[in-house]
Amino acid sequence: MALVAAGCGTPYRVVEIDSKPAAAAIYVNGVRRGVSKSKVKIEFPGDITQRSFVQLVKEGYRPVFQTWTIEEVPQTKTFTLEVE
Amino acid sequence: MSTMRHLLLLLPVAIFCVSCNPVQRRSVQVKALTTAEKEIKAVVLVNDEVVRDTAMQPVLTPATIDVDFLPDPEGIGFKPVELEVRAVVQEGDTIVRGLEEDDVLPYYSQSRLIKLNDPKIQLFFLVRNLDYQ
Question: For residue B71, what are the CA distances in angstroms to A50, A62, A75, A83, B68?
Fold first, then answer.
């Protein structure tokens, strides 16, 4: 599992995000992190209940929204965006 | 020390902290964007109330607002807060649409429940209202 949660520093996981259609902008906790398909780092600065927010957006399509706790982050995730 | 024992020892501290801190305030940055990632002006609502500045004018996005989280009476922790953004139509600096719930707007409103330790930046991507004239 692509996990780094060392004793010091902010715990995070890395997930490969893809989308249908491709080339959707990926936002993690309100910050743009790239375009699908990409591997993105998701940080969890709080406790184990901390949620991270992932949003994918592409013009002409309905945006998608996902929350994950650190335990819920998959290794890969494909989001499907429906036409607006 | 086992993790479970550690958690049990921390539980009274957590309960005490909740009881002595009736309200937790967090600053939240709220932005509204189109699906083309362009910022748009929107009013912000917290638990169905329009957020206003000290002059009682509606706060427009992008904005940093203070959100109060109340203890959850049914458990440990704090109740989530409903955050909503509603795109506005302006004429000059005057909001002509967007303050009333039944206003027809160029974008659909969007809301979500946020928790005390959720990310401080809250983005709302609003979908166009294709019926808007």
Answer: 17, 34, 35, 40, 10
Q: What is the pLDDT of residues B37-79, one digit of tens each?
A: 999 999 999 999 999 999 999 999 999 999 999 999 887 889 9
Mutant choice from B83, B118, B130 vs A, greatest count of A C-beta within 10 A: B118
Give CA separation, A11 vs A3, A41, A74, A79, B114, in Å.
8, 10, 15, 24, 21
Local structure of B12: helix, strand or coil: helix
Q: How many CB pairs under 8 A join A and B?
A: 49
List B123's β-bridge partners, or say none: B31
How far CA B19 is from CA of A47, A48, B69, B77, in Å, comes to 20, 22, 13, 10
* Placement of tokens 């969890």 in the chain: A44
Contacts of A3 (CB under 8 A, 6+ apart): A13
Q: Report the predicted TM-score, pTM, of the whole model to 2 decimal places.
A: 0.85
Residue type present at position A26:
I
Tell me the CA distances in angstroms from B7 to A8, A69, B10, one per residue in order: 20, 19, 5
ipTM: 0.89
Residue A2 scores a pLDDT above 50: no
Are A30 and B119 a contacting pair at CB < 8 A?
yes
